[in-house]
Fold this sequence. Notes:
mainly alpha; 9 helices; 4 strands; about 70% helix; globular
Amino acid sequence: MTDRKSEYAKRHPIVIALYIAVCVIWTMIIRHPVPLLLSLAASGIYCVILNGIRSWCHELAAGIGMLFFAAVILPLFSHRGVTPLFYINGMAVTWESVYYGLIMTAMLMAVLQWCRVAGSLIDSEKILYLTGKTLPSMGLMLMMIFRTIPLLRERYRQVHEAQTGLGMAGGDAPLAGRIRRLLRELSVMISWTLEDSIEVSVSMESRGYRTGKRTWFHLFHFQREDLYWCLLIVMTFAGMYICQFRGEFAAYYFPEIYRIPLAVYQKAALIMGTIGMLAPAVYDLYFSGRERCTINGTDGKEAV
């Protein structure tokens, strides 16, 4: 299922922004390994549902590189901890440094996956709706940033196809020739983008941007179901945030690893929070399955 078929993306922008905010903030402030792994798993599941397993595998490959740097390279230079694994030039490589690198990699991967989920659920219209009145310049800047990456990818494809059509691609050329071809294509793409940005700025100025009160049209309406979603998010995440602010999810990694044991109510709070993180994913799966059943039933009637 892709982001175009996400039923949760049709909810009000406030609901989606609240969901993404509580998930990302929770992942960034927590240090206990159990909540971090739950957030990593929930974000990974939702990424697979929204973008497919292949896209998630590409992100996982990038995460392996970060894991190698944080858990293998950094411990060679950071010697904090009291449990040596081995020695290099008389300096100890400690288990605490390796474990801390694993936890920080999990946190970074979870945040990146939640950001990928946000990119699939929030488009430019939702960003303008959320920031149009309070931070219009910030909203416009974010919208242009999110638009730039896919635009550059599409323009590079067009430039490459044009170069191929002119016989200048040089697929069998030596390495130096391929590098020159790549630099030429990048130069054309950057020049095209800069000229387009000038045209956009002139067009905005000629249409009176920031010369008067700004108005816009939107089709977002806060419905009763959106209120139910907000209440669900608040109730499921409240227990985890309360436990975190009371210091009941504290974890320390230096000079030795120490984690506060999880009590029954802390485990219940984590279960409720995990339900809140996975609720939109289940929501999308439910409507996707119902849509497939409807299509199959329609096809069966037509065949009969």
